[in-house]
Design a protein that fits this description.
The chain is 9% helix and 47% strand. Strands 2, 4, 5, 6, 9, 10 and 11 form a seven-stranded mixed β-sheet that branches.
Length: 131
């Protein structure tokens, strides 16, 4: 079955960096659209970055220029390099996989329903940013 396992979360000071990883199994990784979501305490889950099955990337405005999403199809892994982290970037980061929801435009068009439309999720990894 589809399995997504995130790692790499932790605690950093504002301005610091973290690299998240998502190990995927149980499906043909290269044919899926992958994305990272973030859920801050008391807030809804929101899309942060996405990469489609052709390698095109897109980002939420709040992270453009600071975060980089990438995949390694040979290793069935996705990454999120997060630089210049801010306290508002704190939360649980989730890896997601879908075939029909590709790119941030599609994710943002779904609004609050995105977490319900996207079928495959990891368990999340906590990122804490102190000011």
């Amino acid at each position: 079955q589809v399995q997504l396992v995130e790692s790499g979360g932790g605690s950093v000071q504002a301005g610091g960096s973290l690299r998240l990883s998502c190990a995927a199994s149980g499906f043909t990784f290269s044919t899926y659209c992958m994305s990272w979501f973030r859920q801050a305490p008391g807030k809804k889950r929101e899309g942060v970055a996405a990469i489609d099955d052709e390698g095109s990337t897109s980002y939420a405005d709040s992270v453009k220029g600071r975060f980089t999403i990438s995949t390694d199809n040979a290793k069935n892994k996705m990454y999120l390099q997060m630089n210049s982290l801010r306290p508002e970037g704190m939360g649980v980061y989730y890896c997601a996989a879908e075939t029909t929801v590709c790119g941030m435009t599609a994710i943002q068009a779904l609004g609050d329903t995105a977490p319900y439309v996207i079928v495959h999720w990891g368990q999340g990894t906590q990122v804490t940013v102190s000011s």
